[in-house]
């Protein structure tokens, strides 16, 4: 179906983002549940008193659930306010094919947020309400109950929740780490040319005035000759596409060699003027560049890149081979190096060395140019050694002088083209990194809260141990070890889950394996270090305990 075809490029990415958001929400609910359980343990005497004077368990549960709904409503309202600013950030960060500029916070979003807040209040509040309303009335009203010591079952429930938070945070952190490493790998790829001091001007030739090959070549010749004369211009040429862009996909056939006469095969095709390789400083490995004499009356020629020769001409000498491409039988006269491009076919990734045939635009049939210019806007590419602003003004002046009715669509540098080509990967990595960072904060807050409550609950025990001769260092170690154990268990479980779930990222990860050991080890080690601080900070409160006061209370 057309609708499915149009959204296929973003559907998988959005589903993964939805899954990440769901995991963060689940961690948040687990965190609030853990905090409500801790709060319920300190309110056991209050709840026992209500039950003792005739309040039924359903009434107590209603009260606790209403409190959860109020908390969730406040959180939902705050989330909507943050969402207004967050949407603007997403619109600024998202690539064009995500159509984020059409997104609006409307009544549907408000309704979804309200329902989500209600669902979160039930998820986070139902279990603490059941635990709190099932309190032992007699035990809670005794002196021991007044001291608020939580039962073992509640402790283990909270520990499982916190450990689960850590595990889910590990899953998100590993996923974000893989995407960040992918983005780093793509940015570190050797471009294959010199991108410095190059500016590109795009012009649409889908125009009846440029429906023939003669008219197009006249425009190129006139504008390029004048641009080369401008101050600060080192060289200038024109091409159908540039590195970091998606090339024209077309078919070709091998005319000679051991595999001649086979079926047509796919490759990228670029229509260029002479000096294209010199302007971009794409290395000429063998053979020659295009010449001004390679015109309509000359024998058809082509230049191929190394990726093309490796894939399609591995069993024969590339130079002197003949290919049927762009409506003619052409001799390969040059072999150039690879540049990073967006393929649109094959398994080359967001950027890769894609097989390419370069054709002189002078030898391109007019009907072919007319068809191609419907989808592609030719690009004037200029290498300069002065100021970019003055060169931009010069190009604009030249084009407006030669063709007054032909406006320049845009100017871009090579860095801008590369950034645009990796927009989707940058958006996914940034968004997942932000979500995983939020998940990490929530997990650490949950762990810190658990350890803080544990220190409060064990203050009598720890005070007595200090009074009986135990060292402060040992007491701190014993208080902090449970948090580290929970974090270690969560990290181990999270690594196992991540190892099984990161397979869904295979279509988004390039240059790194979805089971990359460095990513897993970095996440595990980093989270354990942060968890150690979160466990140690509450334990340090033991240094403020006075054993004499503890014995006096006893």
Compose a concise summary of this entry.
With 554 residues, the protein is an alpha+beta fold.
Provide key terms for this protein.
19 helices; 58% helix; 12% strand; 4-stranded antiparallel sheet; alpha+beta; 6-stranded mixed beta barrel; 554 residues
Describe the structure.
- The strands form 3 sheets. This protein has a 6-stranded mixed barrel. Strands 2-12-1-13 form a 4-stranded antiparallel β-sheet. Strands 9-10 form a two-stranded antiparallel ribbon.
- The chain starts with a helix and ends with a helix.
- It has helices at 2-6, 8-42, 44-52, 57-93, 107-133, 137-140, 143-146, 152-187, 213-228, 276-280, 306-312, 366-372, 388-402, 414-421, 423-457, 459-467, 472-501, 517-539, 547-553; strands at 198-202, 233-239, 248-254, 265-272, 284-287, 301-305, 322-325, 328-336, 340-341, 352-353, 356-360, 379-384, 410-413.
- The chain is 58% helix and 12% strand.
- It has 554 residues and is an alpha+beta fold.
- The chain is elongated and about 105 Å long.
How would you summarize the topology of this molecule?
Layout: H1 2-6, H2 8-42, H3 44-52, H4 57-93, H5 107-133, H6 137-140, H7 143-146, H8 152-187, E1 198-202, H9 213-228, E2 233-239, E3 248-254, E4 265-272, H10 276-280, E5 284-287, E6 301-305, H11 306-312, E7 322-325, E8 328-336, E9 340-341, E10 352-353, E11 356-360, H12 366-372, E12 379-384, H13 388-402, E13 410-413, H14 414-421, H15 423-457, H16 459-467, H17 472-501, H18 517-539, H19 547-553
Parallel strand pairs: 4-11, 6-8
Antiparallel strand pairs: 1-12, 1-13, 2-12, 3-4, 3-7, 5-8, 6-11, 7-8, 9-10
Helix pairs in contact: 2-5, 2-8, 2-15, 4-5, 8-15, 8-17, 8-18, 9-13, 15-16, 15-17, 15-18, 16-19, 17-18
